[in-house]
Every structure is written in structure tokens, then in C-alpha cells.
PAC domain-containing protein (Sorangium cellulosum), 640 residues
Amino acid sequence: MAPRDLPRSPLAVFLRAHSAEILEAWERAERRRAPGEQSPGYIALREELPSIFARLAERLEAAVSAAAAPPGDQEQDAWSGVESVSVEFPEPLLGFRVLDKLRDGFELEDVAAQYSVLRRCVLRMLERTGTQPSWVEMTILHEVLDQVIIDPATRSAALRERALGALDRVSAEGMGNVHIDRLLRRLVEVLVESARSVDWAVMLLLEGEVLRIRAGIGVDEALWGLRAYRLAEGFVGRVVRERRPVALRSAAPDPLATDAGGGAAGPESGAQSERPSDALHALYGVPMLSEGRLVGVTVVSSRRVAEFSEGDRLLFKKAAERAAALATQAQLREQLAAERGRFEATIQRLPVGVVVAEGTSGAVALNNRRFAEIVRGPEETPSNAPLRTLLSETDDDQRARWLLHRALHGGETVSRDEMEFVRADGERRLGSFSVAPVRDADGRITAAVMTVEDVTELRKAERARQILIDASALMAESIDHDGTIEQVVRLGGERFADLCALDLDDGGGAPRLVASARLPEARALLPRLLKHPPLLLGDTASLAEATARREATLIPLVTDPWLQRIARGPEHLSALRELGARSAILVPLAARGRKLGLLSLWTVERELRQDDTGVAAELGRFASLAIESARLHGEAARAR
């Protein structure tokens, strides 16, 4: 069949002849249905309808020519007559340009109402003109009108889904340590990209009694820091008061539509007054709430639409919810950082050492300088270091780590457990350790806190005081003066130092040696030292100087050259070397201007200090009294 012989579609002829009349009737009906400013959907459809009618006429003619009925009655009963119009029009009937315009305030209910009015206008014009299209043509007509509703709705839903996904990604990014202003900026960008009708958007955060812009698009960023909005003024104030979204259909004549949606907050704003905007149309504000507490306000505006669509308003609400959550998280992080800063400043001022260990790894999360000084000496303690790096591998230091382990994994609390530990500089110290677990609201152990006090000097002073008390009691109670001398030496060698030796030389005979030691190694050397007395009496310069000064002399570091100078022979030197002394104090003994001998105190495991010389001098004084008492007692006995 030649093209000129194709069957004509009455409906196609009708649309080509009466499309202008249908359009005029539709415009009149729309103005009655929705007076005032027309929506973007109406404008887009009015521009596209002539093209839709032309394409529909072509489709009708093609369908009528291909819709010859089957010859058999049974086949005719099952015959549909035409395939779905979507097969013939794979691209959207409205075209992508129109669909993009529909994004500016797309409202599905409004668009469906417009198409319903259009459908009635077409049907009424068909009745007036007496046109009688076939059921195949009417099927195509209705499917086309349905499709022009489905296309923008589907596209709008897809765009909204992508926007919500972008909001989710920004929220996930906020779980890190990203600055709140950057996150709010990302949220505003999502709003502007997803709701094409938005001309400007701002997010304001509460700062004391005012709201200040922290992110925005379409508003001069240079003025953000100068503008602040009181909670009770302007459009922003209305949103704050009502604690719900507030929309203005046409904000241009509304006195609340000033600047970015609120009144300036006095001199801080940098402007005397703000003139009402004569360009704003739609204005929408959403309070940013976190558990009922106001965090800020989100405001969006448009000069192209009188009212934002329901879909856009939903997007704005979602963005405000995310912004409130992100701002709250940022505030909590700031509060936590401030509290941690105050906590760190507090523990840094404490006179005791403090260390906080994490519950999972046992790593040191926080420690103060005093803890570093106690366990590491002058070295700086590495932050976030395992406790095993803070203490040495000695048995005592492992006990200290075990205390922390018991708190972290056993929930034990230990108070004032004293133990020795080896400091990083090699010195043995005495610490008083306390440890306790830290639990969360559910009772789980999340950390442990250990405190340590260096009680080395305190305990040393207590021991020294007790030694002197005991020595004084010996002098007052004992009538065995020779025995008193030995007990004074024993106090010095077993409770003050590691070895104490008393070289007696009262000029009445051969020198005599009295010695006592605490350490087994030092006690093992005593027979060799006692075999060839005296231990230190001699003519060496250092000993002569100490004796001449008649005061306790500290040898802070015993060196081999010094031992070689004081030794009286190879065997003597060998015994002194085996002692392995680190420090010594030499105390010359005298009474009534007469030399009595020399008291020497030696340490192997610790270094003696200048403050130890006072205790050594007192022991020397007690020894001198005991020697002098023994001498006087002997003279009295001989006189009888």
C-alpha cells in the first residue's frame, strides 16, 4: 500500500487541527485551578505541548496503519491492537530540557493535576468537534498522557535518591575528624546541586545568643563573620521560635525576608539595618535540632519559584537533620578535647606520677611528666608507648607491669604497693604503686590508671632516723662497750650501707678491724679483709686528707685508680676490687683531740649522696663515744 493510501487517524487529524485551541482551553482552566504565579511544571509543559501533540499525531498514524485486525474471531478476541507507547518512544516524551526545568520545584501532585486538566480539555474538544477516534487511538492518547507524568516523576525520584546518598556520604565523612565548616559546606553543595530552584542556601550555627553563618552558597562569604542573627528576630527568629520548618510562598513582600532570612544583631553585624529583599520568592527555614536542643538553622531561598516542592522540602529537612547531627558531634569532640586538655593539665600538676593505659592493648594513652621523671629519669617518656618500654626488665619492674595487667584484665584495685624498680639511668629506686581499673556505663573495663610515688628518699630518711635512734639506745643501755662498737658497725653495714668497716688505731697497739656486711658477696670477703687489717688506714694522700679534715668525706664514685692508691698490696687490692663498690663515705674518728680510727661505709647497689654523709657522721660519733667509753672503762678497771 502506498503512503498516500495509508488509513488516516481521525485523532491525529484532530490534534493537528485543534492543538492551539486545546492549549488555550487548558491555560484558562489552569488559571482557575491555581491562580497566581504558575509553577515550573506548568511553564515547562505549556512550552512542550505543541511538540508532544505533533509526536503523538505521528504515532497515531503509524499505529493505525499497523493495527489491521486478525481475520479469525478467536484471534480478534485476544488482539490488543498496539504495543506500549514506551516501545515507540524510548526517550522521555517531554525531553531532557523540559525534565531539567521540572526539577525547579517539581511537585508530583501539582503535575498530575495539570495533566488531568489537560486530559479533560482534549476529551471535551473531541466531543465538541464530533471526532470519533478508535479505541486503539484512545489507548495511545491516554498512555502518552500517563507517560508525561511518569517520566518527570521517575527522574525526580532518581535525583532525590542520589541526593540522599550524597547526604549519607557526607554524614559518614563526619565520623572522622573533619572540620565542621567543611562538612556543612558539603551539605549546602548537595542542596544546591539537587534542588535546582535554590538560589542561595546558608547553614547557621548557634553561638551563645546569636546564630552565625558557617556555610553558604550564593551569600557573600566575606560578610559571614560580620553577620549574626538574634534568636528572636526576623525569619530566622520565627524558625527558632516555632521549632519547626517555616515556608513563605512568596517572600518578596514579606517583611521577614531580610538579608539571609533574619535581622542583623546590632553592631556585631556590621550594618545599621537590612532592607527587605525585593527578589526573594520561595523562602524555607528548618531548625537544626539535636534531641530537642537548638543547634542551628538551615535557610534556602529561590527567585524562580514561589514555593519549594514537597520533595525539595524533604531534602532540606534531611540536610538539616544531618547538619544538626554533625554539628553536635563536632561540639562533643570539642568538649572532649577541652575536657582532655583540662584533665591533662590537672595531672601534669600532680606531685605523683600518673599513667593511663588503654584497656585493649595496654598501651600508655596518657602520662604526666612526674611519671616520666620517676620511672625514666631525665629522659622524656614516649607518648602512647607500651608500659614495657617505660620500665626495665628486672623482676621488680615486671611486678609493676603485672599490677597494671591485673587491673586491666582482672579488675583488681591495688593501693600503695611498694617495690623497687630500676630507673632508665640505672639507679634503683623505691616506688609506691597504686592501680585501679576504669569502667564504662556497662561495667566493661576500658582503661586502667596507675599512680606512683617515689618514696626512695622518704624511706631512706626513715631508715636513717631509725638507725640513729637504735644507735642512741645502744649507747644508753649497753654496758658492754666492745659489744656496742660491734653493734654500731652492724647498724652501718646491714641497715645503712652494704658494708661497714671500723679501723681502730688508738695508738695503744696494732690496728684492729671490725666489719659487717649486708650482701652475701660482701660477707664472703670479710675473712680476707679481716686477715690483714687495717682496711683503709694508711699514708695515702686521700686518706690522710680525710683524717685531717675530721669530717665525713663522700667518694661518690669508687674508681679502680682510687682503689690502687689506697690498697696496701696485691691481695688487698684484689679484695677491694671484688667488693665492686660504687660509692663510699669515710668518717675519721676522734675524741678529746686524739685520733681513734676511721669508719668507712660502702655501697654496691646504689650511689651514696651528700645527704648520706650526715647519717654516716652520726654513726661515726656513736662509734667514737663507744671507743672512748671502752677506753675509759678499761683504764678504770686497771686502776682498781
Notes: The two ends are 168 Å apart (CA to CA). The domain at 460-639 is CATH 3.30.450.40 (Beta-Lactamase). The longest helix spans residues 135-173. The mean pLDDT is 75.
